[in-house]
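task queued by scheduler; priority normal; single chain, no ligands, no partner chains; default sampling; output format set to structure tokens
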Amino acid sequence: MGASRIKPLGNARELLWDMERIETLAGKAALTLHRPEFREAVIVHDQPWEGSTCCYHTVFRDPVNYKMYYRGGDRRGGKSTHPEVTCYAESDDGVTWRKPNLGLCAFGGSRANNIILGDDPATHSFTPFFDTRPDCPPEQAYKALGSSEDGRCGLLAFASADGVNWSRLANEPVITKGAFDSQNVVFWDSSRQLYMSYFRDLLKFADGRPCRAIKTATSPDFLHWSEPVWLRYDEGTPDEELYTNAILPYPRAPEIYVGFPKRFIANRTTCYDKSGLGWIPGLSDGVFMSSRDGVHFKRWTEAFVRPGLQTERWVNRNNMTAWGLVETAPELPGTPPVFSLYSTENYYSEGAVRLRRLVMRLDGFVSVQAPASGGSLITKPFTFSAPASQEPVTLQLNASTSAAGGIRGEILSADDGRPLPGFAADDCEILFGDSIDLPMRWRGGDLRPWSSQPIKLRLELQDADVFAYRFA
């Protein structure tokens, strides 16, 4: 067996989100997309410098607190009622947010507001991040890219010591090849040791119509960027307009990227769009995608965020997922934390735009799922590493079963596909429950002797989901 086919997993978490590391699915087992649950509206954009076109939200957690950035804007009768600004909010828990009175920028004759950027072309789509590069200068601990409404200025680079007071890093744009009227994101990738940016450019549909799509570029220093390349998708993925991308490293497995694009259906409208504020049709929902190399993505065509029962979400350009995926407190006593992400509503409508929190199980975006009639999976070959301590090594699953369902597993030799001694399915205790770390037990006991040996994992599922696994 070629060594290139064997993945060195180490003790990292492997996510069962695509077929990249799955050799076979059998029976009724299938990759299944899961959707978030809606929670409270965390921000209402009801201040004079905000308005009906507040969007392009960015949310992340730094060593101090949770931070949020967004565009303040308003349109009435097809025209802007005030210049666009960039605003800042903060939170101690990711749920309750405050708009601090910063006193930095004047609006309407007063500096009593939460505006951090006023008279600058980058206010249309200013997207910051906290830079975790080990040798990052303290005065550049926060960085951002921003662009103008028409995108003609390209992407301008900014830095800040505190995430509030910002200055330009260069007079000229650092990325110029694109159509930047969108939320164009950037972050430091610790596994690749590069800055990554994902931004809008325009393709053409088969009939010649322009199509909003996504390009990416890399940089070692944030100022000098590679030639942009288009994202690629699995064969058979339809051509669809992606208004934003919201791509970032997955916090629990940073070598894998997740993205939450807003999918734009340009020729649809509904009876609910009566405000006249948008002037053009265009319905949206949110989709989910993931990537192991940053260029090729598995993109689900089923919606990750449907507009739902709120009629204002069935109006032009709503349902935009913010850039950012943050861990927040457990929802019920004795349960694990959850991931919070955020989505816009009431855009281009009377009243104020709202940002609503959505919650997901940790690792819970996609699972291998099987009904009560059963199914199974076999992974592609891999090796794992035993920790330095001499504690027994176990296989831990992020999994969920019914009370009647269950999971059994076996460890297979990658050479001949036979179960290792003591680790066949008949040696395995039936696993049932619901946890982000369910230990699987075999008669063979400690898995440490098999570390660094090429193996495969076979799981049998009945009325169960498996989201991820790791050896610990």
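post-processing summary
- The longest strand covers residues 395-413.
- The mean pLDDT is 95.
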